Amino acid sequence: MASITSREQLKEYCLRRLGAPVIEINVDEDQIEDRIDDAFQFYREYHYDAVEKVYLKHLITETDLTNLYIPIPDAVVGVERVLPFSQKSTGINIFDIRYQILINDLYSLMSTDLIYYTQVRQQLELINQTLVGVKPVRFNRHMNRLYIDMDWAADVDVGSNIVVEAWRILDPDTYTDVYNDMFLKRYATALIKRQWGTNMKKFDGVQLPGGVVLNGGKIYDEAEDELLKIETEIQARFELPVDFFTG
Fold first, then answer.
1. Cβ–Cβ < 8 Å for 217, 224
2. At what angle do helices 7-17 and 182-200 cross, to 10 degrees?
3. Closest Cα to residue 36, out of 193, 174, 141, 228?
4. Greatest CA separation found in the chain?
5. What residue spans define the domains of the chain?
6. In this structure, what DSSP letter does residue 178 have?
7. In what side-by-side order are the strands of the sheet with 137-140?
8. How far apart, in Å, do the first and last CA atoms of the chain sit?
9. CB 185 within 8 A of CB 169
10. How far, CA to CA in Å, does 117 sit from each of 111, 121, 130, 177?
11. d(Cα 150, Cα 134) in Å, to the nearest integer?
12. What does each of the 247 residues of the chain score in pLDDT, given as a tens digit?
């Protein structure tokens, strides 16, 4: 069949891979949905293809100044930093060192030593990091709040913008290729297989007409081995560094 582009197609693929419709898969519809949700949760936790880097702009309001935090969308799983912003002002003014360098040293690109300019900018950046530093942030995705450790009353005005560098979950309904990810399909199938084995384990040893003996425990054990293999592979090859972002 063509590439999987929906949740329903993913569910049908997993069941076919387990043997349906030739074999009856003894798993309830709600159990299948739960296992696919579990597969997505693991996929988003450990596979870098499940998230994207974004820059989110937030307009400061009176409520933010009162709360001392800004709200973050639920789809955001991690925050790296808040981009630098001018305190109580925007843009470059005549008292800004960057403005003075531009007007005094860069009057002609043909006569300007770019090596010297680069060194000066690096020195200014070092001074800024030493004396000013980067505003620390605290974020927990279960709270959906970004705390910025600064003097809110002195550093920002109502109506100013803050830009946050963050990681956001890819929406599979927008980027439907997510449903066709190789590891997601394998993991969802193995989870449903384990659920099938769990459902059938209590019938171990029961003999059906024709001499067939049920063995749900074997199905369960096979699924556990498959899950362990997939989880190890994803964490080893596709997991982002543990300190890659905050949250």
1. no
2. 60
3. 193
4. 94
5. 7-47+181-237, 51-169
6. G
7. 70-71, 145-148, 137-140
8. 39
9. no
10. 12, 6, 20, 46
11. 10
12. 579 999 999 999 999 999 999 999 999 999 999 999 999 999 999 999 999 999 999 999 999 999 999 999 999 999 999 988 765 544 555 556 666 666 666 555 566 677 877 887 788 778 777 766 678 899 999 999 999 999 898 889 999 999 999 999 999 999 999 999 999 999 999 999 999 999 998 877 776 666 667 788 899 999 999 999 999 999 888 886 665 555 5
Residue carrying the six token digits 């090859």:
237
Contact call for residues 157 and 166 (beta carbons, < 8 A): no
Token pair 């197609």 in the structure block, residue: 9
The structure tokens listed for 56 are: 């989110």
230, 231, 234, 237 alpha-carbon torsion, rounded to 10°: -100
* Cα–Cα dist 224/189, whole Å: 12
DSSP β-bridge partners for residue 55 = 165
